Amino acid sequence: MTTDGRTATAAARAALTGSPEPARLEARIDRWLPALRAALTPLYGEGASLDTLVARLIGQVRAAVAARPDALLVLDAQREVDPDWFHSSRHVGYVAYAELFGGTLTGVEERLDYLDELDVDYLHLMKVLRPREGANDGGYAIVDYGDVDPALGTRADLQHLADSLHRRGISLCLDLVINHTAREHHWAEAARQGSARHREFYLVFPDRELPDRYEASLPEVFPEMAPGNFTWEPELDAWVWTTFNTYQWDLNYANPDVFAEMLDVILDLVNVGVDVLRLDAIAFTWKRMGTNCQNQPEAHLIAQAYRALVAMAAPAVLLKAEAIVAPSDLLPYLGAHRLLRDECQLAYHNQLMVMIWAALATGDARLMTEAMAALPATPPTASWVTYLRCHDDIGWAVSDGDAARLGISGPAHRAYLAAFYRGAADGSWARGAAFSSNPEVGDERTSGTAAALAGISAARVGEADLELSVRRLLLGYGIVMGFGGIPLIYMGDELALDNDESYLADPDQAEDSRWMHRPRLDWELADRRHEPGTIEHDVFAGMRELIRARRAQPALDTGGQTFLHRYDDPAVFAWERRHPRHGRSFFIANLSDRLATVPAAAPSWAGLDVPDVVFGGGSVGNGVGGLELDPYALVWFTDRLDTTEN
Ligand code: GLC
After folding, report:
1. Any catalytic annotation for residue 322?
2. Contact predicate 461/529, CB 8 Å
3. Would residue 438 count as lying in a domain?
């Protein structure tokens, strides 16, 4: 993801390389210091102790900048003069487990032509930093943030890969597992061996009194695999807070030492050349008695403080919030508070993802329209990442309020969607599975690859219609590509990979059905993308077509706004992107397996009467009642604005 040609020229780049780095750093510190102090004060108090902490943090920043490689300083300078660089519609991301994509980091590097062929320019690689041995929650239990998983290679390999990606104009995203470390991380080891300082890094309780009081309002994230939120640790002779698995110890961010140590982790990663830090489970970083201990105001302040420090140390780098929370709690991660704050530049659009699957299951897009309309406007300084699948389960985040406005019951609809996607509802084409069900609170989440959930897996064995299933998958991705934000393709979806049941044979994975949608990329199968008539070919070609259309469409730059349009036909989801610089695009999608109709005048109200592209193999025609859209068709209209006009 480079700053595109609209702003950066070779000459500008050369001039910036020679400019005085120290002056730039001082200017950045001045610029961001007030925000840093404002975020830290409610967390760690005022006065001399705050001054000492701030001095320590700024010292860390200075040391990091002094060690920052020249090529990254140039990138900093480019992106500083073009802070909107990540808003361009040219960006498209790819998300993969390094091991499943390339075997090793060198193996990933050898496959980069594939990413170029797909035409993506952002790579989120998972399970890269050294996780604990044995069960490690798919790499989210880190023993050493400064080292690479030995199964993948070395730090030098990571450095090499980061450099190669940059040479190709591809940005690298890595996880910052910020909420917890592995029980075997050296901080936790030291705590277990009696270090009083390191005991304070975690949330440790001598008896059940406080844990029981917290539990009264805490949900369980993995109720089947790891019930409860506290684990008895004999070596501490105490209970330790473990929101996720028993071996993932939550960090104590009320301790400024933890905040400062994690800053070192961040600064080390950005100097390797990480462009985007995914703040894993950021919502959980602050605990408050009597709450669900998610989305606390302090969790936002932590993100804001790191944002200020990263802006000082490495302005090329973005923060991405992994906050899979209720829609009403989502926007603040992008800085939308009572007053706008600089927080994360990117956040996952979980709500859009859930609504696409919900609409596909019912063939009815009204709830989707309702839910999208209920979301406040995205702050213009930030952007979503949009996605259809990822390495995690799908939690059916249907808000009771949105459902009630349509006269349906939230709990019943959530239960229906879970049953549908595990293939248990009438007419279901889906072949997913339940993940971490909690019958006590009526919660069931869903695992399965996009191909399995869209019907392609069932179609392969003659239990669903293949053409419709392929269209369904491409429609899902079409919405992801056109809604606004950086779209992410989850590895294997571009080849319609099926579920992989082999995890069941591995005792470290068998309990966790998320592994079914983490298949290995079989490169022989991938070769079929060049053989017309194969599913792999059709899906890969469809995906490329969507990417091509998106990248050629500046109206999809973020910084614009999304407007929803409502028509009588419940199968229709229609939205418009309006960008102050780049004009408009208009989209009409049919979320059902029947013909859908919109008034013939629907797109022409704004002069958008030329259907640019009809995706997914469907077509659009003129029927008696108006425009007719084939099952799962997505039509894309472009404003023929002459951008040279004033
Ligand atoms: C995030 C990750 C998920 C992991 C959890 C705990 O949600 O995406 O895979 O289990 O954090 O680290």
Report:
1. yes
2. no
3. no
